[in-house]
TrEMBL record:
Pfam families: Hydrolase. InterPro entries: HAD-like_hydrolase_sf (IPR050155), HAD-like_sf (IPR036412), HAD_sf (IPR023214). This is Haloacid dehalogenase. It comes from Geotalea uraniireducens. NCBIfam families: PRK14988.1.
């Protein structure tokens, strides 16, 4: 994909599904948590899934969706501890390191901008060691709004300085790309290979890539 990098000063990147394989998160919430919840409450895993999936859906597009403390209290489970039980599944997508190195060489401001809770961020940065590649990291919990809310992108400017017309956003969420587009962020990239377990499907709305290496110019 051809991008004129001279027109971009700032790169905003999502974490789960965009830079990191979402297989970890999907397995954790859809399989591991129901299994532990079933054991704790002496019910079948199938019953736990039916109950929990409904609870999870009720908090979509809110900060509770990624708030580990909220789910620990709601479910009566130590969610951060349970994440460590399967942290071997945390993985960086192929091509991400090369892309981050390219951006650094180009002198771009690189911000990790995620809905993830601080405890999730700490675990994943410790496992992947991606932290030093970024100019900085901002969680939606610091901003006070999820990225699904258009007002998030304006409030983000209270944390970092960026010009929407000269900013690129990489996301695996079409919803979040849509709210960013409404705010005026010009360069929008959809990561179609958000999980190593799925067949990538390009977005009908946004330019799509399977790997960030597609954005590195061939010299």
């Amino acid at each position: 994909m051809l991008i004129n990098w001279d027109t971009i000063d700032t790169v905003l990147l999502d974490m789960d599904g965009t830079l990191l394989d979402r297989h970890f998160d999907d397995h954790f919430w859809l399989e591991h948590v129901p299994k532990r919840y079933a054991t704790k409450n002496a019910i079948t895993v199938e019953t736990a899934k039916e109950l929990l999936y409904g609870l999870f859906r009720s908090q979509e597009r809110t900060l509770n969706w990624t708030d580990l403390d909220y789910w620990s209290e709601r479910l009566g489970l130590d969610i951060p501890l349970l994440k460590e039980e399967v942290d071997h599944l945390i993985a960086v997508h192929p091509g991400v390191i090369e892309f981050l190195l390219f951006l650094r060489h180009q002198g771009k401001a690189i911000w990790l901008v995620t809905n993830a809770h601080s405890k999730t961020l700490a675990l994943k940065m410790r496992k992947t060691r991606l932290g030093p590649y970024f100019t900085g990291i901002v969680s939606a919990h610091e901003v006070g709004l999820p990225k699904e809310d258009k007002a998030f992108w304006q409030k983000l400017q209270e944390k970092i300085t960026y010009e929407p017309a000269r900013t690129l956003l990489g996301e695996d969420s079409e919803t979040n790309l849509g709210t960013a587009e409404l705010y005026g962020i010009r360069h929008l990239i959809y990561m179609s290979r958000y999980s190593s377990t799925i067949v990538p499907t390009p977005s009908p709305r946004f330019p799509s890539i399977h790997s960030f290496t597609e954005l590195i110019p061939v010299l």
